[in-house]
Design brief:
Pol/histidinol_Pase-like, alpha+beta, TIM Barrel, 22 strands, single chain, 501 residues, 15-stranded mixed β-sheet
Length: 501
């Protein structure tokens, strides 16, 4: 079904009274919120490109900011003294779906996804209660592409994004997957529903579907008791899941949500055991760590950044609004399918605090080039050099804390691809190194961007390159304490690959 047909189907489900009611709620929120304004003009540098895309004059992809981990009032609670359990809204998160969409738009996002918690018989709540509200929100906030899905109760693991492709049977598709595989959905609980084998079964089943979902792990080290000591999510589970469905199970959050925790005396990300580092999960922040171990096998495994918004910190929560602090940028058209394609294929970079608003990473050799998520293939010669180009655009104005953050350093990180590891729990890649660090004297101005170039000499094997940058003077991101998250900002690219034949 085409998008215009979907819009017609959604329109048919909206009564005039509902539209007036929800439009009034949206207008009141936009007028009353002290956070609306201040930065909305700069937050989407691609506003004119969006207009051209919608008008059909250009099919070019641009960087579009979004968030795939947001909670609404449908993250509630269940009274299991009744059969079936009775659902109550607003127990864990408090905002209507449309409120999240309005705030996402205000803070510069063009796509978003509500991912509510599951629970006993929650699949029915999603289908009968939450989905109609999503249809309303799509109608009221059309500038934000709003995906359907949930925070999936992954068997044997912590929570995951389960993103459903936009199509006419999206609601039934989520009901099918949640009711069959979410570990908390059956009531009463069924044996064997919370095992790694069940997770692999879920991914294999998802791979058979014509409309393929996306699965991304949330706050993967939140239960880890120490540095390099894993908790609920383990390296072998990522590998087994990615082996089962490499085009569906594609990554984890590099920067988890709940980043406003320190503003109310808590930990960034809610990481109460081992902390985040510069706001990033240790699986991502450690050079040569687990992420690099997966990339060193040649896996296409990506990182994202989300808000995990439940309750805003000004109301006593630990969260920022969607897009207020963390953003996941995807190179795509303003189109549901192309956003998912970008997430699936690694056309992604992430930032906190709007440290930058654009980032491109390119590898060039022998007259060919590749960008983030792509591979450049070169022929082995006596001397094979690869030029890496990093182009970024600093924030032109204030971020949503009223600051003007400045990039103090950019790091180029390179690792070798040596093939699958015999140890499914391997969590290091000793070949990965920071091969170059660049400061303001090293980059040159090119229009609104800054450009850095570096040549990798005598490349004789498969490799990948990725970059990160910061407004701090930390050589490596330090363990986080109670410092303001606005003082400790980082951006990360996803990798570009080089294949030598």
């Amino acid at each position: 079904m085409k998008d215009k047909d979907l819009e017609g189907a959604e329109r048919s489900q909206l009564s005039r009274r509902q539209l007036v009611k929800y439009a009034g709620v949206g207008a009141t929120l936009a007028a009353a919120s002290p956070l609306v304004g201040g930065g909305a003009a700069w937050a989407n540098d691609d506003r004119e490109d969006d207009k051209r895309d919608k008008g059909g004059e250009s099919r070019n992809r641009v960087w579009r900011a979004g968030d795939h981990h947001i909670h609404s009032e449908y993250s509630g609670e269940f009274d299991t003294s009744t059969n079936p359990p009775t659902f109550h809204k607003g127990a864990d998160a408090v905002y209507p779906i449309v409120t999240n969409a309005i705030m996402a738009k205000n803070f510069g996002l063009t796509w978003a996804m509500v991912t509510d918690h599951g629970g006993p018989t929650h699949s029915k709540v999603n289908l009968e209660q939450a989905y109609p509200d999503l249809l309303l929100s799509r109608k009221l906030v059309p500038d934000v592409l709003q995906f359907w899905g949930m925070e999936f109760d992954a068997p044997a693991m912590d929570h995951h994004t389960l993103m459903i492709p936009r199509h006419d049977d999206e609601a039934q598709m989520l009901f099918d997957l949640e009711s069959k595989f979410a570990k908390r959905d059956p009531f009463p609980a069924v044996p064997g529903g919370d095992t790694e084998a069940k997770m692999v079964e879920f991914l294999k089943y998802a791979k058979t579907l014509r409309q393929k979902p996306l699965v991304i792990a949330h706050h993967a080290s939140r239960s880890a008791p120490g540095w390099g000591v894993w908790g609920q999510d383990t390296p072998h589970e990522f590998r087994n899941g990615n082996n089962a469905a490499p085009d569906i199970y594609v990554g984890f959050e590099g920067a988890p949500g709940h980043q406003a925790g320190p503003l109310n005396g808590g930990a960034r990300g809610g990481y109460g055991n081992h902390p985040t580092h510069g706001g990033y999960d240790q699986m991502t922040a450690r050079v040569g760590g687990l992420w690099d171990s997966l990339l060193g096998e040649g896996r296409r495994w990506w990182i994202t950044a989300t808000s995990d918004s439940h309750v805003h910190w000004t109301r006593g929560g630990s969260d920022f609004w969607p897009g207020e602090y963390s953003k996941t940028y995807v190179l795509a058209r303003q189109d549901y399918g192309d956003i998912m394609d970008g997430l699936r294929n690694g056309r992604i970079w992430v930032t906190t605090g709007d440290l930058i608003t654009s980032l491109d990473l390119t590898a060039r050799s022998q007259g060919k080039d590749a960008a983030m998520g792509e591979t450049v293939t070169v022929t082995r010669r006596d001397r094979t050099d690869v030029e890496i180009e990093i182009k970024f655009r600093p924030l032109n104005g204030q971020n949503h804390n009223g600051d003007r953050p400045e990039v103090r350093r950019v790091d180029l990180i390179v690792g070798q691809i040596t093939g699958p590891s015999a140890n499914l729990d391997a969590d290091t890649n000793p070949t990965t190194k920071v091969v170059a660090r660049f400061g303001p004297r090293d980059w040159r101005k090119q229009g609104n961007d800054y450009v850095v170039k570096h040549t990798l000499r005598n490349v004789d094997g498969d490799m990948y390159a990725r970059v990160r940058g910061t407004n701090t003077d930390e050589a490596e991101p330090l363990a986080d304490g109670l410092e303001s998250p606005w003082e400790d900002l980082w951006f990360y690219s996803n990798p570009v690959f080089v294949h030598v034949r």
